[in-house]
């Protein structure tokens, strides 16, 4: 087994739990490992640190597989890792029918993503090491998760950095084009073959549930004591039929995609929700989801650029009780961070101007290259320019099926906050 000796002067990221070794951290390669081979990583004194998968041309030269250098990396290793990941989900999630079952490095399986949709799993293979071991993956998922079909969506651009071509298609069983899942009591139709990523974004599941106390009343309504928020209302219909005097919040949901935030808002009591997205395909799916749940009458669908629409609503002096901003990642790499920060400031500035006094801004960022501190600073700058005072209601990250390695900043990609908005 080849050995990778690290430089004496380096950041001790590996010892702190980061699962990657970059090429510029390596002092010497002893042996001639093939691409994807298992290697031993040692410090400059020769002490064993970990086992990892070698990549001779990627900037990520080694992806860590185990910190026990005596461990055998084989089919049994992969199955045990998947079983451990699945046990973690069953411990922390109330419902595991639809969730992220394997989250790559955070579950000790570098470059493998598995989303479970009932009896169907959708996989993304993002590393060379997993790609050449793909024949290990299918039987392990079938045995551990009990799925009857597995569809591959290995079409992410990051594969090209590993020297891999896109791979898409059914790899096990009979794969449907679409599946139906239930999240927080809401049905969603998920396009696993053509939808973004694997079809649904599980990382915002718990954040969507956090809308419950925010949308139950409009900013100008006086909440009734007998309708005070209760946590158990987040998983069932929260507007009793007898309370017909309630009005509920008027909500603007920008970058609505297939309607996940919007439909949660309706379920939790919103009076009316405008869904805005630039993708006609996504809006059509959102319409179908609204119809499936019987929410169509309270939903309005607008196709267009969210930046342009926010400016138009500002000119027309439109106001909402709740504005939701859940844009795609603005920074795909570190070089894009400055422009991404300008984008985040712009949408939050425009969004804040549309919130009624006492209303709420629900805002998020999924750009891994933008740090939480940078993002919070940008929201604060937007509030300053908009002459608003913000009171933080909640700050959250990704859902529990997206565990975060403390030594890996890349895992801390999702920033989500709810602010009460008052004029200044």
TrEMBL record:
Location of the protein in the cell: Cytoplasm
Record-linked PANTHER family: RIBOSOMAL RNA LARGE SUBUNIT METHYLTRANSFERASE, S-ADENOSYLMETHIONINE-DEPENDENT METHYLTRANSFERASE DOMAIN-CONTAINING PROTEIN
Any GO BP: methylation
Protein family membership: Belongs to the methyltransferase superfamily. RlmI family.
Keywords, alphabetical: Cytoplasm, Methyltransferase, RNA-binding, rRNA processing, S-adenosyl-L-methionine, Transferase
Protein's name according to its UniProt entry: rRNA large subunit methyltransferase I
CDD domains: AdoMet_MTases (cd02440), PUA_RlmI (cd21153), RlmI_M_like (cd11572)
Cited SUPFAM superfamilies: PUA domain-like, S-adenosyl-L-methionine-dependent methyltransferases
Originating organism: Sulfoacidibacillus thermotolerans (Acidibacillus sulfuroxidans)
Cross-referenced PROSITE patterns: PUA
């Amino acid at each position: 087994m080849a050995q990778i000796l690290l430089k004496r002067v380096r950041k001790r990221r590996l010892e702190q739990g980061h699962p990657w070794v970059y090429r510029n951290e390596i002092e010497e390669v002893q042996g001639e490992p093939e691409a994807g081979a298992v290697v031993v990583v040692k410090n400059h004194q020769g002490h064993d640190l970990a086992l990892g998968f070698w990549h001779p041309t990627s900037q990520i030269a080694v992806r860590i597989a185990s910190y026990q250098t005596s461990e055998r990396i084989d089919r049994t290793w992969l199955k045990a890792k998947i079983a451990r990941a699945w046990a973690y989900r069953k411990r922390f999630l109330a419902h595991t029918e639809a969730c992220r079952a394997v989250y790559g490095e955070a579950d000790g399986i570098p470059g493998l993503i598995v989303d479970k949709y009932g009896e169907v799993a959708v996989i993304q293979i993002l590393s060379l090491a997993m790609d050449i071991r793909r024949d290990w993956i299918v039987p392990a998922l079938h045995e551990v998760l009990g799925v009857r079909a597995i569809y591959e969506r290995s079409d992410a651009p990051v594969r090209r950095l590993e020297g891999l071509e896109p791979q898409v298609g059914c790899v096990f069983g009979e794969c449907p084009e679409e599946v139906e899942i239930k999240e927080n009591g809401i049905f969603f139709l998920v396009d696993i073959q053509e939808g973004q990523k694997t079809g649904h974004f599980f990382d915002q599941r718990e954040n969507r549930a956090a809308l419950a106390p925010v949308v139950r009343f409009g900013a100008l309504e006086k909440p009734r004591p007998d309708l005070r928020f209760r946590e158990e209302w987040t998983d069932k219909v929260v507007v009793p039929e007898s309370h017909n005097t309630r009005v509920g919040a008027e909500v603007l949901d920008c970058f609505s995609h297939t309607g996940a935030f919007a439909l949660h808002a309706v379920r939790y009591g919103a009076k009316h929700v405008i869904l805005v997205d630039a993708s006609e395909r996504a809006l059509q799916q959102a319409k179908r989801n609204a119809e499936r749940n019987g929410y169509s009458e309270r939903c309005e669908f607008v196709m267009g650029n969210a930046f342009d629409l926010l400016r138009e609503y500002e000119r027309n002096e439109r106001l909402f009780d709740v504005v939701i901003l859940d844009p795609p990642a603005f920074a795909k790499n570190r070089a894009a961070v400055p422009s991404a920060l300008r984008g985040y400031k712009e949408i939050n500035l425009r969004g804040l101007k549309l919130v009624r006094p006492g209303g709420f801004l629900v805002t998020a960022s999924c750009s891994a290259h933008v740090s939480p501190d940078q993002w919070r600073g940008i929201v604060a700058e937007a509030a300053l320019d908009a002459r608003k005072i913000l009171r933080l209601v909640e700050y959250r990250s990704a859902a529990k099926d997206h565990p975060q390695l403390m030594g890996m900043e890349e895992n801390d990609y999702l920033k989500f906050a709810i602010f009460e908005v008052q004029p200044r």
